[in-house]
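User: Hello! My lab partner asked me to get a predicted holo structure for this protein. The small molecule is magnesium ion, SMILES included with the sequence. Please write out the structure tokens.
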Amino acid sequence: MTVSTATATTSDPIAPKAVRGSPVGPRSFAAEPGRVVRGIILGIVGVVFLVPIVAMIEFSLRVGQPVDGRQAYGFQHFVAVFDPVNSRAYGVLFQGIVNSIGICAITVLIVLVLLLPTMIFVELKFPGLRRALEFVCIIPITIPSIVLVVGFVPVYSVVAGIFGSHPWTLSFAVGIIVLPYAYRPIAANLRAIEVVVLSEASRSLGAGWTSVLTRVILPNLRRGILSSVFITIAVVLGEYTIASFLSQNTFQTALILVQHTDPYVAVIFALFALIFAFVLLVFIGRLGSGSPRPRRGGPRRLTRRPE
Amino acid sequence: MTNTRSSARNAARATPAVTASQAIPLAREGAAVELRNVVKDYAGHRALTGVNLSIAPGELVALLGPSGCGKTTVLRALSGLEAISDGQIRIDGADVAGLPVNRRDIGMVFQSYSLFPHMTVTQNVEFGLQMRRVDAASRRARAVDAIEMVGLGHLGGRYAHQLSGGQQQRVALARALVTRPRVLLLDEPLSALDAKVRVQLRDEIRRIQTELGITTVFVTHDQEEALAVADRVAVMRDGNIEQIGSPEQLYTQPATSFVATFVGLSNPVAAILAGATVTAYGATLPVLGTAPADGPVTAYIRPEDIALGSRGIPATVVASSFLGSLRRTQVRLADDSLLFVQHDVRERPVSGEPVFIEFAGHPVAVSEREE
Ligand SMILES: Nc1ncnc2c1ncn2[C@@H]1O[C@H](COP(=O)(O)OP(=O)(O)OP(=O)(O)O)[C@@H](O)[C@H]1O
Ligand SMILES: [Mg+2]
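Assistant: Hello! Below are the structure tokens for the protein in complex with magnesium ion.
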């Protein structure tokens, strides 16, 4: 391991040992940072993330104005959020959350039902179209949302004519915004596994197209699909411009609305959103992490030989 | 049933050579395969120009040829991965035109590693049986037997990335064979492996194939591999088969100059043809097979048909290389042409040394001189 270090200048076997774990010295350009370096990096990043969160928590717990430079704290604002008395005032927020979750779900569906099969199909049957597909999927990133919206407004007068003016129709617009982000992880994953060879191998073993897809291709694309879904959700939850300009009530627009009247509640919901995103990240990370695990005790059955 | 299986497996451990036929009991003999005038056009490019090939049940035919000659295309046409533009392919006498890949009942091993990365070795091998709806218990047993047949009995729980290249190709072979396919198609299965593993695995493929009696097509661009492994070798060139025959036939009676130079090492030599003999450098040699019209021709003389001696044609040693059991020396003749001579390792010509060469008088292949 030490030999492969590009910067190991001496052949003295003791030298690399002497600097192990040290952030400075010849090993500091090694491929992987040492434990201490990793800890420091993590610490700094953690602080950067923690400061605003702590500030938000602190802010949301404030009660009244500081008296003689002393601030009183309590859970009044948190309680107020769930107080039925206020349901009218905060109703718009809860409705926004419901709408946003609906938009998330439909956008994810668009990615999984439209983008994913298209990408697999192009990869298997029309590799020549790969560049074209990539180009189309990347375009939205080059156009600012505000410009897109200008185009969307007339389109949505038609959409509203067909589907009615429901918040979930925003998914069509968001589905386009999301394309570049959803495309990348799946494309990288597709490139990394040899889809064509794997599908040809499984077909030569007697698998029909459905089996090829469900038993061979999709399991190997799990990671790409999961990151794609996560990024999609993150983008949907972060998208404000389109919802606002198309006059739909989503979590984000509601948050801005409420912030004008009650900044505490806005911060509390922002906190909830953060926690939700965090839990989602961990959950999806769990699903997609690690080496492929044997399904239903593969190796175990091996050891128990039938006699 | 389970009893006979486990005893077969015990036998496997003692003498691996006996078991293949027991591990995968053949439901039927290998199938006859026939290609009739098979044409394959890719957009604006004819990859196969009317290939005819009959393979007897249980036979191993190697497709040999330079890169781009259409070997893979023949194999993919046979497997159904590529539709043919014209002609007919018959397996067991039946036209397979309407059969998609997954219905042709073939086994394939690919040049690149093609194991399913998310499955263990055992799961990989079981896949084909699963597709054929074999029940779990016999599936497992047959997979274990097949894995043992390729000598990897202890690795059933591993994933592809935990295996060496040679092991991966062994698993791929087990995976292709476990379903007892009618035909086994191997597309340069050894080309990604290093020399030693290549020879080992090639011999093992031959052993297993012989024991199972499975009709096999083995694609390779390595003539040594083709000669070593096949019952018959089909030499391909520019989308068609130039000659097909046993390894000995191809080597000793090449039908064309292409075959003569592609199979084994040959020295093309300018010669004059007269009837059934050619004259080159003052020596008269008998001619192999059908010869072109009398006149100037190119004769192909094998290095082992030339000897270093104390008299004969004067030459100068250019270089000499030690090849283990023999030595190959390149000499330059008076007219500047270069010849390879194969001789005993105990003779050690040095570069620049004047020597004499002699032709052994074995029949040689000739072709019209290409100028
Ligand atoms: N999908 C394709 N589209 C167009 N032309 C192709 C395609 N596949 C192969 N060809 C052409 O058909 C010819 C035969 O290709 P093939 O792959 O059968 O060669 P090969 O003998 O297997 O060569 P190699 O030893 O390099 O694998 C080549 O000229 C190749 O360029
Ligand atoms: Mg090929």
